[in-house]
Amino acid sequence: MSLVLGLDSSTQSLSAVILDTEKGIVVADHSVNFGGDLPHYNQPHGYDESGARGEVHANPLMWLEALDLLLVRMTGEGVDFSEIDAVSGSGQQHGSVYLKSNFNEVLAKLSAKSDLKTQLSDCLSRSSSPIWMDSSTGEECGEIARAVGGNEIVCAKSGSVAVERFTGPQIRKFAKNEPNNYRQTGVIHLVSSFFASILAGKTVAIDHGDGAGMNLMNLASLDWDQDLLKATADGLKEKLPPCAPSSSKSGAISPYFVKKYGFSPSCETIIWSGDNPCSLIGMGAASPGKVVISLGTSDTLFAAMPEPKTDPNGFGHVFGNPAGGYMSLICFKNGSLAREAIKKQYSLGWEAFEIRALSETPIGNNGAMMLPFYEPEITPAIDTGGPVFSEEHEYLSGEAVRAVLESQFLNMRAHSEWLGVSPSRIYITGGASENDGIAQVIANVFGVSIDRLDVPGSATIGAGMRAAHGIGEDLADLESKFSQPKEGRTLDPDPAACEVYQSALPTFKEFLAKQFSS
Ligand code: ADP
Ligand code: XUL
Description:
The protein is α/β, with parallel strands linked by helices. 38% of the residues lie in helices and 19% in strands. The protein has 20 helices and 23 strands. The strands form 7 sheets. Strands 1, 2, 3, 5, 13, 14 and 15 form a 7-stranded mixed beta sheet that branches. The longest helix has 23 residues, at 495-517. The mean pLDDT is 95.
């Protein structure tokens, strides 16, 4: 039994938990908010908001500074890192970091007298990192698909059609537009494998969970796919770390962290995974049967899969399950983004948002719906932003709140039917999951009970559980300790409301189809 550190570098923050796996408790929980704590990067939500033509990039130096700041803060608050047996992490998926061939050499010589940002800034061959919100690579997706013989082939090989935010199309765009910088790149990391490399003091592998979100990994062989590599960019194989199972150890922690923060030289590092694969572990959903909805900046729906099954419409994805096997994932970009837009438009707090959704308006909203796609959407793929209301009248605040929530979850239900699973309950997580108004709409739209876990941040907890699993602890035992539903917080569906949504579903699909084809 051990003390393990789980880190999570998400869109907006870097978080850490320390788990005591013997007692089954979270002993520390800290975080750094990129916008609030590091305002000098001018990325208030964790990314540069001035990108044109769908480009969304973040500054990788901000992530490095956040890591030092988090560890300084934790030390200041009395955390003793010398007792940590293992560390692993979770990263926002798809984002990539481009490093020159001196990266390993610099990592090996990091001095505890300076900081990560200062010492590693010279290693970047691209000053910014495209992240998952980027939708600028439509052209490159088409080129990759054509080069391998069509999107059906890309999907059969990699688990997803060529997707704008996925790393392969992003790499292709970089290689085309900045050929010199691409040539100077020695290694391309995901956010997850970048952080894992910093901790290990050397370039480490990309795990099968996050690797599957690149349009480069072959799902059957769990290795880089020669055809996809060739279709993406010249000489790419040499610039990618190897793929490895998510529970792989990557050696003792770098001396930088031993000297600077007092980690034990025998603290093990376990390679990182993506935030959704980590959340699957943290939610106790590593075995097929549980469906999870994560309500973060984006909303995602995911579940472990017995066999890799791909989405015939091309919106869903298959990733590696960190516990072995596969998981499905569907990402809805306008999750909290859309809810926040309505909240802001009507000057509401979250409490008012919740109360209005429940009490001021009838279930079904008298038929008023919306297509809540403020930003270009991923599921379904709509490349222009801007909400569309089904009825042309002034929406009062309660009506608008209900329209956004009901439409978001009708859209989620419509686009998850291909999974063919009928869960008996859905587990929710993420920043918005505490909101009972939102949770009740999900229960009613899907017609199942909703549970929440007794711990904050399933991706961070999942990263900690993966660290413990990596040093030999039993995953089922960890799940029984850390992934238990909160008592007294189950929300059951209301049968009358379920009937309303059952008949609203075809109407929503028609509304969407009409809007799409016009
Ligand atoms: P990420 O991991 O993508 O950074 P989080 O899971 O931390 O995101 O969720 C952050 C989001 O949660 C915020 O953008 C905010 O909109 C939303 N949120 C926070 N509290 C509430 C609440 N009480 N009701 C609804 N949404 C909330
Ligand atoms: C998943 C996706 C997002 C990010 C958010 O495909 O793009 O959920 O992982 O961090």
